[in-house]
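pinging the channel bc i need a second pair of eyes. not urgent but kinda urgent?? the chain im working w is below, pasted from the shared doc
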Amino acid sequence: MIKTIFIMILLLLQVTATFAESSLEKGVLNELNLARTKPAAYAGLLREQRKLYKGRSIFFPGHNVSISTVEGVSAVDEAIRFLDRQKPLSPFQFSEGLAEAAAELADDQGDSSATGHTGRKSGSMRQRIESHGEWRAEIGENISYGFNDPRQVVIQLIVDDGVRNRGHRINIFNPAFHRVGVACGPHAGYGSMCVMDFVGGFSR
């Protein structure tokens, strides 16, 4: 029997457990850079994922669950159009300091069902980033809950289902962002989470 898991915005179901945390973080970085440097190719990946939709639900092969979305294929189609128009950008450079800042939030929320950009102990995004170095230009943060497959983490954020301003997608394709730190870990409520902290420049 197919069990339907309802979600809102970014609170998605864990659908695979094939990656260790370190592999997940590296994979997410690679996927972010693939999307930034080859957006047209990434649009092709979304076209393939579109085939998994039935109504507003996604059915992943090999899993006896469906994921209910807010917008259905309309959000995917809008993301595909965006990627088809998007010019390639330079890849993100990995920052260990930003990864440490991201890890603070992942550790903070991991043993609870808490979500959002402010940790109970770790504080706000800005507080966490500034505790590890000095940022320049702009800062931003994406958080994915539920997926622990790198491609699904990034597709989720690019489609940005249910997020009116597509803010997570904007962060990924913001030309002012050049550095990123990624930290992933378990999450008591949604199985896993990944935090991505972005800045224009960063020095420890």
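so The longest helix spans residues 21-37. and Confidence is low (pLDDT under 50) at residues 1-21. — does that match what u expected or am i reading it wrong
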